[in-house]
Write a structure and sequence with these properties.
Order of helices and strands: EHEEHEEEHEHEHEEH
Shape: globular
Strand order of the largest sheet: 3-2-4-5-6-1-7-8-10-9
Radius of gyration: 18 Å
Largest sheet: 10 strands, antiparallel
Number of strands: 10
Strand content: 15-25%
Number of helices: 6
Distance between the termini: 32 Å
């Protein structure tokens, strides 16, 4: 099964050093949560990722801070890079049979209309229990997004086709995250299990993986309550 763990936020300027630190912590936590996904990819406990470049072959990448900083600096040196769009490192790793993890996104920029994002796609063998709540908690705690979720293509298609959500509009999957200002707008009638994270945001355990009907109903409730309103454009802050 393939699922996508996402976090999105507005403009938040960050240094290369700060972003390298976030990336390192993210990769370390992924190795703890999904050990089979990178098993055998590197010596010892440290995984070796493939850094997917815009041109040329993918390069091996070890998740230490110096290597990650160099990769970010390489991306910043590209001809089409702008400090308004942010910077990212597309990565992929394949471990035991049936496992694959891909990462992408942009962070550290000051865009007016395009959200900053962290996206982790996880492909796992059928029947394997994937720690969705812990994976979204990772993104929420390490990247401090405005909103985030765990979903798949079926859920995303249903949100767009059946509920009228635009691709970049705030929404949640079978697990969702809302920043503190969005969490404050949760209606009393919303029955999903809630977990308050240290930063004040809330994790919502909404439905079983792939349960599209319950996810659609939850998004409609949250949208009516104002908890999924887009950031004002042009964007001036990272969260609602």
């Amino acid at each position: 099964m393939r699922r996508v763990i996402r976090g999105a936020w507005g403009p938040r300027e960050e240094s290369t050093e700060a972003l390298a630190g976030r990336w390192k912590l993210t990769l370390n936590r992924l190795a703890e949560l999904l050990p089979a996904a990178g098993s055998g990819s590197g010596a010892g406990d440290m995984w070796t990722w493939k850094h997917v470049r815009p041109s040329g072959p993918a390069a091996d990448l070890r998740p230490d801070e110096d290597t990650l900083r160099s990769a970010l600096q390489e991306a910043e040196a590209a001809n089409d890079w702008s400090d308004r769009t942010g910077v990212g490192i597309p990565l992929v790793i394949a471990g035991e049979p049936g496992w694959k993890v891909s990462m992408s996104g942009r962070a550290g920029g000051l865009p007016e209309f395009l959200l900053q994002t962290m996206t982790i796609a996880v492909e796992s063998p059928e029947g394997v229990d994937v720690p969705d709540v812990e994976l979204l908690t990772l993104v929420a705690e390490l990247w401090e997004p405005d909103f985030g979720d765990v979903s798949n293509d079926d859920v995303l298609d249903a949100l767009e086709d059946d509920a009228g959500f635009a691709p970049d509009e705030p929404s949640v999957g079978w697990v969702g995250y809302l920043s503190p200002a969005r969490a404050a707008l949760l209606p009393d009638s919303f029955t999903a299990t809630r977990k308050v994270l240290p930063g004040g945001g809330i994790l919502l355990n909404i439905a079983a993986p792939g349960n599209t009907d319950d996810v659609l109903r939850a998004n409609e409730q949250l949208r009516e309550a104002g908890a999924l309103q887009p950031l004002p454009h042009p964007m001036e802050r990272a969260t609602l």
